[in-house]
Amino acid sequence: MARYWPEADRKRPRLGKAGLLVILLTVLAGCAAADDTPSPSPSPSSEDPAAIADDGPKAPGDREIVPPEVRTRNGVTRVRFDLGNVAIGDPPQPEEFMSPLRGTLTLPARSSSTRARLIVIGHLRAATCADSSFRYPCGGADSIRYDAGMDYLAEKLAAQGYAVLAPDLAPVFVGQLARGGSYDQTRAWRRVVLDQVESLSRAVDQSEARKRLVGSDSEADARVRAVDTSSILWIAHSRSGMMIRAAAEEAAKAGITTRGALYLATAHDVGNNEGESLDDPPLDVPSLGIVGGRDRDVPSDSVQWAAAHFGVDRRSPLAVATVGSFGHTQFNAAPELADDRLDCGSKPASPSCPSGEEARALMVTTAVGWAKAVDDASFPSFMTDAATAVPSEWLGYRADWFVHTLAPRRVLVDAAQEPAARALKTEDASVQRCRIVDLMEPVAPGTTSCPDDSDVVARPGGPYLLADWKPGGTLSVSTGQPSTAARTVVLHLMPFRKSDPAGVQLDIRVASSRVALGSDTPGLRIPGVGDDGAKTTTVRVPLPPGTAGASVTLGSDTSAGGVLITGMELVTSPPGTG
């Protein structure tokens, strides 16, 4: 059953305390079904020094440069290009590590009225070579092309008029660490991607640069000239999600703006363990995240990362959804990738095990719709108006959402702040600040772990405020300005100690308004079958017009329970209407 999961080597597997038994049972169930499951390429032994290179790629100087391969079909032109090698090592010896500078450019039909706006796709990290090892070069064969695994998406986007650049990043991801050590993948990723963007920009205006990129194909030549490289919409899968902020900031220095981002099951550091810092906040551009509900690789990183920064003021919408029962590897169509959902490999497609084709159809609809929404500023209302209910589905699949609240809002509780616990007054209740930690990782000094007696499997992350109450117990926080009309109470939380088998029952009060939330409410319900564990979810509680209470109170009149709170907000009426 041994294999290398695509992102597993970013750090050791991260399991919440209460989740160890559940995940162990899941693995055992997967092994029991393995006789009928197609196996991925054989994995090298952990003692094999070639399994994971200690450092980065070392493309040979005499590597054969492959001429551009151009294909036009159904009105879309696809170019596989190779621009030679690029030095990606750290100064003062950048030539210590060399990567091929190659990828896929997908171009739409020419338009007489508009130029094709640029989308850049960063693919996942997975084994570079056919023997499941992470190294470059691969010996007698070329490395696996995961940029080609995104052709299905690039071609659909190109059919909508976009130019899509998908760099080959497999060699960049050689090595175990995303950051630090003798080789910095973040710097290498930025260099490879932005060198290709720069090459494309030159090709728009210079015939020699076009010939190098697309060869002598006259149709590709004409289509390149119609590309607009002044801005980028980033689509990042898996480990590429950690990289786009630095790349976007570097691109901005060259006058290239970022107009939006789509985070696809992205990997992030959440600052939970020793030596790990919380990743910087998401780019303040229109941003959407999608994670599969059965992702066995990074099932919660993007949710917990975005939620950890909920207190940061944003001008642009941001939402991250955990959707259906999709996995991690399904979003890349490279045939070398096995299904990461251990209990789905031998089963026919079903709601509990949707197929790879369904996953990619979901991604096409999401990406095409999001690209248009970014261009037209036509975002779903729940992303821009906190008085709008958070949906329970995405494109027909169950979805749990974290949604960043835009202004006007008042942050009442932010668990990231040291005094946060003191902001809550308790009656027959308790509150403490803690983290869900990974027992497989050294815990950061000074970290207080949440007690290991939860009723719910919770994904690692935090800090959280663990709020526990007895029947009739309450916790309350001042609204600060009782004269301001309140529209909505927003909670970012997850269940910890359930009130009944389905989840947590919770009552919210502001002044004379009381709203009872049932245990089937997203954010309070127990994760469904196949989910790895609870993660921060946004709950919005609308209030009657004119509500102006001095505090927000939560608890339950009838039952005990507990939740992990990331933050609480009060959304007020727009200026001039309250």
How would you sum up this structure, described in words?
The protein has 578 residues and is an alpha+beta fold. The protein has two domains: 41-403, Alpha/Beta hydrolase fold, catalytic domain (Rossmann fold), CATH 3.40.50; 409-572, Jelly Rolls (Sandwich). Helix content is 17%, strand content 29%. It is built from nine helices and 20 strands. The protein has helices at residues 20-32, 151-159, 185-205, 207-214, 218-224, 244-253, 301-308, 356-376, 381-384, and strands at residues 69-73, 76-87, 98-107, 116-122, 163-167, 227-237, 257-264, 287-292, 318-323, 393-394, 397-403, 409-414, 425-436, 461-478, 486-497, 506-510, 513-517, 537-547, 551-555, 561-572. The strands form two sheets. Strands 1-2-3-5-4-6-7-8-9-11-10 form an eleven-stranded mixed sheet, with helices on both faces. Strands 12, 13, 14, 15, 16, 17, 18, 19 and 20 form a nine-stranded antiparallel sheet that branches. Strand 6 (227-237), helix 6 and strand 7 form a beta-alpha-beta unit.
